[in-house]
User: Fold this.
Amino acid sequence: MERRIIECVPNFSEGRDMGVIKQITDSVVAVEGVKLLGVDPGKDTNRTVVTFTGDPEQVIEAAFRAVKTASLLIDMSKHTGEHPRLGATDVCPLIPVSCITMEETVVYARRLAERIGNELQIPVYCYEHAAFEEKRRNLASIRAGEYEGLRKKLADHTWKPDFGPALFNERSGATVVGARDFLVAFNVNLNTTSVRRANAIAYDVREKGRPLREGNSLTGKIVTDKRGEPVMVPGSLKSVKAIGWYIEEYGFAQISMNLTDLAVTPVHIAFDEVCRKADARGVRVTGSELVGLIPLKAILDAGRYFLSKQQRSAGVSDDELIKTAVRSMGLDELSPFIPEERIIEYVMEEKPGKNKLTAMSLKGFMNEVASESTAPGGGSVSSYIGAMGIALGTMVANLSSHKRGWDDRWKEFSDWAEQGKEIQNSLLNLVDEDTSAFKRIIEAMNLPKKSDEEKAARNVAVEEATKYATIIPFRVMETAVKGFRLIREMVENGNPGSVTDAAVGALAVRSCIRGAFLNVKINASGLKDKEFARDIIQKGCEIETVAHLEEEAVMRLIDKKTDSVR
Assistant:
């Protein structure tokens, strides 16, 4: 069963004293099972963003301890900084990551908020999905007036805290706890020191926009509605919050953005739009920076976007897509962009590549196969052969996408290359999965069998493990056979100088499917569930027949194309 995982990203009003920051993060890692993913202090903002993940119970315990530590070490009456803030722990959002719904995350957020209010006597407001009323959903509304206006806010009965006393806590201020979707904090660097110009660009792009003024001028009277509220002119980007500020540490101004829904406004669209709006105001974008972490998909999508703008194939490795995104947005202008420290999926891996066959060198994998161990064996090798075969088809698609004279066909071949990359990556994952499946059988067979109950439990475990070990090579077959469309297309219509490479891919995929089917049959033969065994073998026969016909079709095409050299 997969773990339930939530992420917590508390923002603490201390970005200069590393001793204080360390005591806060130490209180987080002291909770067993919690993984600290990132610590981002800012001197000018005097604020630190901490990111950690784990089981929901563990995370809210770690969050409480961090808030408590901050309340003891940070004195808000002496705090200054560029970023809006309300308290020592300014905001503490929980984000569902894996196997948990937003509704469940809300329950945990409110439990945390209640505990902070009751045990630490800190006023707590709940925001976003955890809000109890609509006007408190927006963090900016709760934070309005900041720490300096908090005493007055608490005296207003309409702003009574959701938890904790409605009394001004001079030392700790107030804390905002919530449950929200994944948010990317993204700053764009400008070649100006002007906060006014930076803010103008921020107002151009942020969803909220700017107040409408009479005469459509910068200095005209603000137009208000019947309730006396300013009439707003929306900005160009949905689900984006933005302000402009000057960072003395860097010596230039930035547009600081929160991208609250990457499905609506991805990071690359936000970057390009700021570039356009800045250019219109005579300002140049020089680079950008991430605060905290970003999902892998967001970076890969950015890489594809910028390659597409160049009319280049996006069917390249993840590493190349990441490099393209980093170069295109200048994410390494202020400090090196290290994927293992910035991309959430990479950071969450305990030890990337540990014990993975796919992390080995080609020579290392060969030597591992040749060793005395029974795994990896034919199943893993078959899957690897298939991945290499599809990779040849992907290579031809990439070469074809930028062949001289074929400029108008780049998108056609880029699409094929992306399909190939998806298939080859799936097969690569199955290399390790096949070996894991075999190990499950060994573990099941080694279970105790002294009593009748133990024997029965062992037999069930062996049957389930053997089924799984039958399903994995069948998935290899199902995955690999999809690649013949790519290979045949490349042989028929790809770069003429590389069609034989695609044909070699067809031979490899055929071998992959035949080899995987041998594993299906040998594992299925040991199953007690004969109906399952017959069904999977029948389906395997159908796939093998298709693979045989596809390989023959590709070879006939190659024969026609190479007739001239006979």
